[in-house]
Hints:
Blueprint: E1 3-9, H1 15-24, E2 30-34, H2 41-54, E3 59-63, E4 78-82, H3 84-95, H4 99-111, E5 115-121, H5 131-150, E6 153-158, E7 161-166
Helix pairs in contact: 3-4, 3-5, 4-5
Amino acid sequence: MGKLIVVSGPNESGKSAFAESLMSRIPGRRYYIATMVPQTEENYRRIEKHRLQRADLGFTTLELAHGIDRAPVEAESAVLLEDASNLLANLFFETRGDEKTALAEIRELQNRCRVLTVVTISGLRAEQYTGETAEYIRGLDALNAALFRQADAAAELRDGVACWRKGGVDALA
């Protein structure tokens, strides 16, 4: 099983750029698994921003809304999953999957690579919502907690500043 690094934080916190920078330090084949299914102009702008951000970092990009457990990645590669919150939303709203489904896909992917870095949104509050949205946020909280428990290292981003909550950058070695 490969090492697991979790990078969490609210939207626009710098978590993606931080994760990309971490992964660019790892020699060998690197994959970027993009899970966002664009629905709005803002989604398309975010996708383009991320493409430009990683343009010179040597990633092979795979666009997979779900089914990441079957991603065509090489053994001993480094994989960046962008991101677990989109993966869960795709499973939850499209296939009626849940956090257990997402976690199983992530664990299988982790089994197939040397290092897996998972980016995820944190800090959402289920009590501010109702219905499916609140249920999704509770599922995301459960998924994030499970990923944190399993992680070799976990960093939380706030305004571009990383705070290691578990392990540290030495987990890349």
